[in-house]
Amino acid sequence: MSKNQNKNEAITDMNKDFTQWYTDVVKKAELIDYSPVRGCVVLRPYGYGIWELIQKQLDTMFKETGHENVYMPMFIPKSLLQKEADHVEGFAPEVLTITKAGEEDLADPLCIRPTSEVLFCEHFKDAIQSYRDLPKLYNQWCSVVRWEKTTRPFLRTTEFLWQEGHTAHATEEEARLEAKNMLEVYKDFFENVLAIPVIRGLKSEKEKFAGAVETYTIESMMHDGKALQSGTSHYLGNGFAKAFDITFTDKENKLTHVHQTSWGVSTRMIGGLIMVHGDNNGLILPPKIAPTQVIIIPIAQNKEGVINAANSLYEKLKKDFRIKLDTTDKTPGFKFSEYEMKGVPLRLELGPKDIEAGQAVLARRDNGEKKIVSLENIEKEIAKILEEIQKSLYEKAKEAKEAKTYKINTMNEFAETITNKQGFIKAMWCESGECEEKIKKDFGATIRCLPYEQEIISETCICCNSKASKQVIFAKAY
Amino acid sequence: MSKNQNKNEAITDMNKDFTQWYTDVVKKAELIDYSPVRGCVVLRPYGYGIWELIQKQLDTMFKETGHENVYMPMFIPKSLLQKEADHVEGFAPEVLTITKAGEEDLADPLCIRPTSEVLFCEHFKDAIQSYRDLPKLYNQWCSVVRWEKTTRPFLRTTEFLWQEGHTAHATEEEARLEAKNMLEVYKDFFENVLAIPVIRGLKSEKEKFAGAVETYTIESMMHDGKALQSGTSHYLGNGFAKAFDITFTDKENKLTHVHQTSWGVSTRMIGGLIMVHGDNNGLILPPKIAPTQVIIIPIAQNKEGVINAANSLYEKLKKDFRIKLDTTDKTPGFKFSEYEMKGVPLRLELGPKDIEAGQAVLARRDNGEKKIVSLENIEKEIAKILEEIQKSLYEKAKEAKEAKTYKINTMNEFAETITNKQGFIKAMWCESGECEEKIKKDFGATIRCLPYEQEIISETCICCNSKASKQVIFAKAY
């Protein structure tokens, strides 16, 4: 059987039907279960386990950069949500409204938070009086709700888990810096933990957050060449502060409005993990985010001493790794497929002959490579291989992204590329909403961002040929 | 100034008005802020910090006992909530209902979870097929919503944070054991981490969870002698399994209904911490749950070398303790009051004379004791004192509870005690709902539980004088 052949007949070939492959993987890897609530899923232990590792590592990064966690109510009185005009216009169509409590009708209906800017604003209004109270660097882990027409597990669900950072600053300069710094935190997390390369950039006016002055984004490329907006950070200016009257007395004793930011990433990242690293045998998880990094599978476990040896190896290794031992009565072959489907980075096989020879077999999930290692210094060997897998997944994803990134100069070439190749198209843009809209309408491709690293391809807009000084990335997106 | 005198004029004397004292403390210690949503509060960084430490430590205990975390949707279709009759009857009056999504009216309105039994049941129905799939030992950290008439921060809010465990088992015996074991986990956590002594027992039929066969509870006593139901664990029998058709094929290949449990504790625990340990200077936190265990306050910090010395001490100690250094320009006296209000267990004072003598002053929050210690082995000294504080808070709470626990034999004595003394009343009960109801109506006291440790006081019911074999605890409760 060749390395790339699909051993598990139950999942669809990703090259034939990527969408169905994705749906098969989320279910077969036991990440989610469908729920009786439209557009909502159940995060099963394995799926939630990934989220717990995401939370733990991101939370540490937030705290190291001076942020504190808080918790705001999940409800927003309808009257309050309407205070910032752009913001309410952006979210109103997606908001769920509560009109009844028990048998009682509510006078001011409650909305379920689609995001919590207005609640943070209400709190800041009270908590901020003087420059001494600034900056406020807050974050919260919670779920938010947006009523979406079409939903897909992790990528777009009615309710989803996320973190939302909300900060208030004395100056515009400081707030802009915060928004940019948090994008760097996200980039670091994506590249070094999730092993997903990202492009940093600015959103166009049309694509920016409802109520923001500027939205920074990280965009990543999925296996099929489509883009995933993976995290955003907004400089909100002082518009919310003016709408909500958030002022402070500055050092010159002058009453001034604060400048704010907000930033968030969500369980959507798990969708990204699946679509960047997965293959026809299922999920592939980078070791840093894998709930189980090593699975021990005893071979011929009914033979005397095998289970015992597997057990002592497990006990020895569990201090250093997230490791499991599977001694159920399924066949080794069945177990191999199961943990491949779940994307466990490293399989450790241990049979009677191995025990006799004081060795074990290590098999990598990402490339199928097997290695026989001595039990004596197996910890070091495992640590080394896990590190290699982490690096190699990132490199592979980076190569895939680069292979599907095109520099395009003419509309003909653009049409050909977006239709037949998919991927990221680097092209020049005149910054007009009309050109942006035209390309979206004609090809279903959007401006993902104006990348930080500008590559000037020509001097004219790809769409209208008028003068253009900005390079953007066009792509179809999830 | 005497030790018990109220140094901070802004808070009410707890002996004059305990309710107002509580309200003052939650606000002044910056645990919460009021929100624009009826009955909901904002958990500020200090309040949420306590919750994070609770979560971290409880979560470890749950995982050590084999439980896995999951996440269920926050919505329950109205039709689904109505499937288990007792359950819906218990919760219906408190449920918030969503009727509108954007501008669209919902055909089957969505309820916001007041608790998630029915969602777990729906999932179990699919995920459990064979005895091999059992037990399922799940937990989730989330918020739930109950529309309450009167609310108080932490004790009773419309939305509150909690954990809810949900498990499914092959046999009644195993499920009953699980429900009892989780009560032991709660007891352990309360006594060893929160330093709050608890009484374990069984709830009466009237007080048990809507849909449960049996509810186990831990009850704790607040400073004012009132009870706080602090955690509950329910053996649900197979009633939910029958209503939701959760069956499995057992080892004899017979289709059988599972037996279930659920158990939960909430941010209510923080209310307990405040009301058990606090005093007229504010909050007192046990070191194991204190976001800041030690606060370093430099004395005469403008003198050369003081800030530097405080900084290096901070750097040296931060590996071992949750510690902060306050170098703001407030006076030391102001800072003392502030951290006393926040209940930081230990204050470390460091001034020019201390630095010269190679020493520091340690002041305990719980009893005001001061000790001069050498900087050389200060880590050991701090660790020792924190341990002493932890123990001493538990002992003090236990003594307070015992001092306000009364064995009562007659209704006259009962009336006198519950009216004038408050506290826990141990008395005999005939197990009739009428007597339970009568005492509730006459005195506002409820049966908190039938304690595990039965103390047979007489042979007749305190209320009706008929034969009684069960000893219960009566108290007024939050």
Could you characterize the architecture of this molecule?
By secondary structure, the first copy, chain A, is of the alpha+beta class. Helices cover 35% and strands 27% of the residues of chain A. In chain A, the strands form 5 sheets. An 11-stranded mixed sheet of chain A has the order 3-7-8-14-11-10-9-22-23-21-20, sandwiched between helices. The longest helix of chain A is centred in the C-terminal third of the chain and has 26 residues. The first copy, chain A, starts with 17 loop residues before the first helix and ends with a strand. Chains A and B meet through strand 2, helix 2, strand 3, strand 4 and strand 5 of A and strand 2, helix 2, strand 3, strand 4 and strand 5 of B.
